[in-house]
Amino acid sequence: MNKSLGICAGASTIGMVLISLENGKTTVLKTASVSHEGNPAATILSTLKKFGNLENIRIATTGRKFRHLLNLPSISEPQALESALSFIDLAKEGYRTLLSAGGETFMAYLLSPEGKVETVHTGNKCASGTGEFLVQQLSRMGLDLKSMADMDENLPPHKVSGRCSVFCKSDCTHALNKGIEKDAVVAGLARMMAGKCLELLRKLPSDKVALIGSCTLNKFMVRELKKELPDLVIPEHANCMEALGAALWAAENGKVHSDNFSELIIKGNTSFTFLPPLKDYINFVEFHEEEQAEFTSGNKLALGLDVGSTTTKGVLVDLSTLKIIASCYLRTDGDPIGASRNVYSELAKQIPTGTTAEIMGVTGSGRNIAGLHAGTEGIINEITAHAAAAVHYNPEVDTIFEIGGQDAKYTWLKNSVPCDYAMNEACSAGTGSFLEESAKETLGIEVTDIADVAFKGQNPPNFNDQCAAFIGSDLKLASQEGVPLDDMIAGLVYSICINYSNRVKGNRTLGNKIFMQGGVCYNKAVPVAMAALTGCKIIVPPHPGLTGAFGVALEAAKRTQQGILSEGIFDPELLSKRKVHYKSPFICNGAGRDCDLGCSIARIEINNKIFPFGGICNRFDNSKISAHKIEGEDLITWREKRVYRDLKEPEKGQPVIGMNRSLLMNTWFPFYNTFFRTLGFGVRLPSSVDAESIEQKGAPFCHPVELAHGSMGELLKLNTDHIFLPHVRSLPLKSGDRSSACVLVQGEPYYLRSAFPELENRSVLTPVIHMQEGIDQVRKVLVKTAKNLGIKSGKATQAFDEAVTAQNLFFDDLLKKGEQFLIGLKNNPEKNAVALFGRPYNAFNSWANKSIPAKFSTRSIDIIPCDMLPRTENGETEGCNKDRNMYWATGEQILDSADYAAKHPQLFGTFITNFSCGPDSFLLSHFRRAMGKKPSLTLELDSHTADAGIETRIEAFLDIVNGFKRQNINPDSNKKDFIPARSETRNKISGITDSKGKWRPINDPEVILLIPSLGEISTDFLAASMSRDNIRYKVLPHADEKALKLGRNNSSCKECLPLQLTAGALLAHLEERKESEVSLFLMPTAKGPCRFGQYSVFMNDLVSRLEIPDLAIFSPSSTKGYGGLSTKVTLGIWQGIVAGSILEDIHATIVTAAKDKENALKRFWKVRQNLLDAMKTDWKEFSTALHKGAKDLSVIELEKPINEYPVISLLGEIYVRHDPLARRNLPERLSAEGFIVRVAPVLEWMKYTDWLNRKGLEGKAGLGSIIKQGIKGYFEKRIRSILSASGLVNFAGPDIQEIIKTAAPHISKQLTGEAVLTVGASLHEIITPSCGVISIGPFGCMPSRVAESILSENFKAISAGKKASSVLEDDTRLPFLAIETDGNPFPQLIEARLEAFCLQASRLHIRQLTPKNK
């Protein structure tokens, strides 16, 4: 009998299966599935021991990255699954879809009839809903997996977010704070998890589905899935299927291992850089201690309660001594009332029976429901409470860092009054609950042991600092790479503080006296890490976890003394016994508010009285029960009603135009509506969002685009004859010469067509509207649209004129109403008002703004949209001038209005943004700069439903505003006298005016041109061409981990990765810069539509903010063909980029295919250097060197002909596809698998910008430009011809016309930028020459997401043309992988998708070599 063992080293578990093979029969002898808790090596070794004697048994492994650290043969997970499927015959039984629901990732495989993996669908890496996340959430509620089995499956589940683990956590926490039953929340979690699985199946066969993975043990989730999937099978050994496949494969390919496994684990290299040991910074922190005071009879007491998401704290304060005489700190466990009662009970035990407090204050995320239970009006936000405690301990404190369970806060104080603050906008990565859960659930370390373990760490890895899910992925990766546990815990502690420093504190003031508070400070490693990162002394006050409760008691006492609050009787013992009963809820009818949201309002019975509680506004919050205030004026709601005022039901028999109620329709509906109604059409809009249609999206879009999908889903249900879905390329711009709408706004017709195939069978009208081109352009395209509908030009022109009148009337009404608002405000000088900033589709749209206007107006605060404020004549303000290069019209509006609000004494700004909003990643910094010292509020909204965090931020903001006004702070008090250098052209010669005012030409011997690296080969050739005009230059090295950290530390971390990398590389150079250096930094610019045009603006701001002398940003523009240099240099640049691009392809071929790689690469680099030297002279010398180089390279021998190698096209964003850190050595890894990797060259973009100029799409090419482009074409053909003699040039140059033509069925050439290039090049290159396409972009890259959404649905044989459909079925999916990179190691999910992609690409290559008929 032969035996074999399969090991699966998963992201969170280790699976093992032992099988026997005898007489052709396979028997499973033993299985195991064990959570490795961050230590896979130890878990594998300990589990192997449980399998007994394994001598003479063949062993193999599969799984994630750790499998490569096992001294065993290994296969990828998709291959292991195929092996297992051959054993259980699921495919033969008709199961074509295999759903793998594991501890960290959910994946859906489409199987061929033979059981081979055809394609794989996964969620994105920041999605919640996986098995391990469920365990964490249950733990927060004091439950475990076993508890779920006994729950009532018929209980209506409470809806929780499925998009992000942080938002889901918020939903669960705040639902419980609103009084929702635990069982309903748990049911919602299981429903959400099942929903995540179903999302993956939406484009796969779902009639017969097999479920595997650790989540098969979750009976509740399985029940939910079976409700939607009638034929769902869970095969035997489903929780260790990959290990079973590895065991079957091991029977033939495994390694016979002795029973001694001491050499099983290989020491591997880690992907991470390291931070200094925490123990080196212990002396930077002062930990203050204070004993609890004794109770003194007769002294007045104040009761303070802090009901947090994770813990609940209570204190009794002696108001004579202001000392804590009783305290309690315990877990909330998802039950704020129960936790509060337990706190009261503990407090009562510490004081004599019958002792009462006369004053009570409540704070924390559960403050409203806890305050209702206690019967107190002293409900105070956490910012104010923590500030009160800090000021009590030291009146000189000016900076407070406070990290709680789910929120993190920064507060700046002046004269003991909070005047500025910030909170984590959505992510909880910089909070205590994440630290605790990650340490315990992922690494098996209890919260009480974190500090001791962290201080032992010698090399803490620098984990991701941006998102909780991403840091979680880093932890998994580190454990897979064998990083010691002590180091991982120390790195985790650091990551919490890095996240706080970058995303909460940001660039805000660090004062002279810094306090750090919150329960996380009981873990002494956290304040130490903060001190290490800031380089400042940190003070931790006594009882840091009680400061919220202590502070709210002090603040309540202060307000009572001021007559704001009244005294009462608060008996801890009686409060501990006060029960709460939940009655059936009711639906709010919005009476008095003209609100139609229909919130479910809980009815809570306390002391035989029933109180309404909950809802998305604070109408029924306890804080308003006894305070009947007049509501403030809400012009946001007024604006929305004015937009859609003239929408009417079509008349019977009228042809109907359907419009999507999305994006810019929230401003331009009066125009479109009037146009079509005047033509005789009726108009219909969807009245709601279809939630299921949101899941049709083909990429992780922002919330407004998700709503656009949901709206389209609803629109398709309506009876319409035509659907009007315009491509709005630009809006009117007051400043600047080139307007461009956001990529995602422009891309709406194209990603919706891909998401909803049924649109192909509908009449869809998609005119390209380019408002910046003037009214004649808009008239022309809409009259043409009308003619296509059978309307005569005269009638269409009349309708257009009436539409313009209607739209202008709408704008006039906005301004008149805004003027009235401001007059009323002026007449009431003591009143404050809020200006709401954002876009019509996220801030001024009730579908998207989470009732934020109501949250202000129900607090008696007037609120006005920013586009109802007065505009400057030409859009030129201090915050928005031509130097801002603000080509987004809505951005111009925001900054123009921000300048007005900043100067208005009664207006305070609130900015609504959305997770991963591209434009806002830059606009927010401009907005905050415009506000100066004036407080402002930023709210990052998404599809999650929790609103208690929003309430906290609004309350804190309003308190800070009051404190700011009391201090009478000058908003402009921080202006500086620094004079930056500037790039300046004189007499058509580019140059620099230094910080002292002296101008020098670019080729002055004292000037050096700094060039960021865009691919080692091409950039060096571009740089060398500068020598033709005696320009001194330096190519900056690619950013390393240290440089990336510099970039992040000097940005908001929301900007795209290429900016962070280039900024970091520049700052790293400046650290070594000679004092006398005068530098120009090359940072080309553009006029939209993506964020690239903002890079140079950011860099100029960076120079001014850091006061860097004698450094200017040199920004040639794409709309002008990147002019600004002499003709001989620009032609040299072109020759260099052409040669460099071809050499990159040659290098890729050598790395994969050369017989003698070492000597071939030596020869290559020698040829490259010779060409670089020749490039510095002239074309004649360079041409000679090219001929010689081709001859030298021609002697390199390959293992086999080039066309027999599989080729992968690496496309996407131009910078990250060339940057080693961003792409994480992806080409090298693919090369090791036998693929030649063709990276789309820089040449492609240069030729594209010339094409845009020539076609008049971006700028207009004059005769001189056209002649120059002709010369460029000559040189490209000549250089390619010469280097082809090497025999190593296998790829044709970029054919822009053909790329755009190939993309045309899916995306318009009018949507300029990398999206159309990625779509067109992917479809153009697949099959010939490539067998797979990878599109890589920075996290949140708008063009990359548009391209992904189109390609994920359309990358099929039929879309690739005859070259594919002649050998494949039309609907065959071609190998495509979209990767978003944030500069950190790829998470396990991407690694899994990459393995499946490589398997698919290899199989397609075999088909390419052996073509067959369909």
From TrEMBL:
Keywords: Iron, Iron-sulfur, Metal-binding
Cofactor: [4Fe-4S] cluster
Superkingdom assignment: Bacteria
Domain ATPase BadF/BadG/BcrA/BcrD type residues, every copy: 91-250, 303-556
GO terms of molecular function: iron-sulfur cluster binding; metal ion binding
Family matches, as InterPro entries: ATPase_BadF, ATPase_NBD, CoA_activase_DUF2229, CoA_E_activase_dom, Dehydratase_Activator_Redct
Pfam families listed in its UniProt record: BcrAD_BadFG (PF01869), DUF2229 (PF09989)
Annotated ranges, domain DUF2229: 657-869
Alphabetical list of NCBIfam families matching this protein: CoA_E_activ (TIGR00241)
Protein name, UniProt field: CoA-substrate-specific enzyme activase, putative
Protein source organism: Maridesulfovibrio ferrireducens
